[in-house]
């Protein structure tokens, strides 16, 4: 028993608090894995549902397995992933054909027909721009991550250097040196943002990779990929 002159010993966390902390920790571990598996499983199922209806009935994966194993035709077999394989092979073949002279000619002819169709033209051009942006090659992706003073002096924002400005933009700006195109993303959705044209001397390049900088933006500053533990110099 404590006397009035003895300080009370601090009580440890209760059972409910410990259970809640363990639950949150487990959720942090399970959620990324579970969501990733669920997303992949859903995408694979969506592709299968889109591709398999184009496969003749007698060549459906479940029918082939039933025939090979001698199973009853009424037995339902869900073979997930075959549609993805078919889609990948089909896409590779289309890409290989598109690189040839005949394929390029057919694509140009098809696009010329689309350009003459009012509604389809707008939809096709928008989807094509998005596809070319998402699946762009390395030479068309962001070059470096950087810091710029935006929206005013003394406030720093993260940006991505895309290219050196050319043409009318560079000429009209009247800048004597290089003018850089910098994309400033929003948080936590980095697909939207602002396109700024800044003098090269006002842009501070970062050593962080573009991928690590994107993680920093998406996490709202909570994840620093190249940070050091406390106490390290």
Provide keyphrases for this structure.
five-stranded antiparallel sheet, 5 strands, 13% strand, 233 residues
Describe the structure.
The chain has 233 residues and is an alpha+beta fold. The protein has a domain at 138-218. The chain has helices at 15-51, 61-69, 82-98, 101-115, 118-134, 167-173, 210-218, and strands at residues 144-149, 156-164, 179-185, 193-199, 204-205. It has a 5-stranded antiparallel β-sheet, covered by helices on one side. α1 (15-51) packs across α3.
State the helical fraction. Answer: 40-55%
Shape: flat
Number of helices: 7
Uncertain regions: pLDDT < 50 for 5+ in a row? none
Distance between the termini: 48 Å
Q: How many strands appear in the DSSP assignment?
A: 5
The arrangement of helices and strands along the chain is HHHHHEEHEEEH
Mean pLDDT: 78
Secondary-structure topology with pairs:
Blueprint: H1 15-51, H2 61-69, H3 82-98, H4 101-115, H5 118-134, E1 144-149, E2 156-164, H6 167-173, E3 179-185, E4 193-199, E5 204-205, H7 210-218
Antiparallel strand pairs: 1-2, 1-5, 2-3, 3-4
Helix pairs in contact: 1-3
